[in-house]
Amino acid sequence: MAKVGKKYDASAKQVEKPAYTLADAMPLVKKAAFAKFDETVELAMRLGVDPKHADQMVRGTVVLPHGLGKFKRVIVIASGDKVREGREAGADESGGDDLVQRIQGGWIDFDAVVATPDMMKSVGRLGKVLGPRGLMPNPKTGTVTVDVARAVKEVKAGKVEFRVDKTGIIHCPVGKVSFDAGKLAENAGALISSIIKAKPASAKGKYVRSIVISSTMGPGVPIDPASVEAA
């Protein structure tokens, strides 16, 4: 532990300013990353909302322009021609009640689930399996839809879901340390823009309180909210 602590301390000393722009922050995040694996770069955004109130819940999705550097296994639960559409769009598995039964039997070898509205009665039986893993299809995130082809392609392209937690913070990945700094900045910018557009009408006062970018093991690099709100 002491060894890791020294590496972290050395990395943290590289963060010299109280706040950075995204363009300046990403090279620093990459430079400060010290782990031997390809760390995930994550954004943490504190919002001026009270998630206890339903009308101040902030959630949505965004397709990151450069993806996440992670192959996502997507399954489609549908009926009729939609099973074929899902398969042709690149779904790793596409089926109906047969897939529901496989999941009930313990199969969870996938990262996202797209379902057609008519299958949600069957999918609803999987709530205890999919819910805790954040895999339950939802119309608000575009994963319950008749346009299964589009949904599959968006997930494969790097679509991510963001949702404010009970402390008013959104945590979301924007790429890997191995990404080009410019691409990381564009991904983060797209995410921040989507979160700002999702501002609830009932939110009062300052909406974006703070933004921090960090790698899995590295120190947090603060972003100047004014630099992204004006963009």
Layout: helices, strands, pairs:
Layout lengths: L1 H11 L9 H11 L7 E8 L11 E5 L10 E4 L3 H8 L4 E3 L1 H8 L7 E4 L4 H4 L3 H4 L17 H10 L1 E5 L5 E8 L4 H17 L10 E8 L5 E3 L1 H5 L2
Parallel strand pairs: 3-4, 3-5
Antiparallel strand pairs: 1-7, 1-8, 2-6, 8-9
Helix pairs in contact: 2-8
Description:
The protein has 231 residues and is an alpha/beta fold. The protein has nine helices and nine strands. It has helices at 2-12, 22-32, 81-88, 97-104, 120-123, 127-130, 148-157, 181-197, 225-229, and strands spanning 40-47, 59-63, 74-77, 93-95, 112-115, 159-163, 169-176, 208-215, 221-223. It has a four-stranded antiparallel beta sheet. Strands 4-3-5 form a three-stranded parallel beta sheet, with helices on both faces. α2 packs across α8 (181-197). The longest helix is centred in the C-terminal third of the chain and has 17 residues, at 181-197.
Strand content: 15-25%
Low-confidence stretches: none
- Radius of gyration (CA) equals 19 Å
> What characteristic shape results from the CA principal axes?
globular
User: Structural class of the secondary elements?
Assistant: alpha/beta
Descriptors:
231 residues; 9 strands; 21% strand; alpha/beta; four-stranded antiparallel sheet; three-stranded parallel sheet
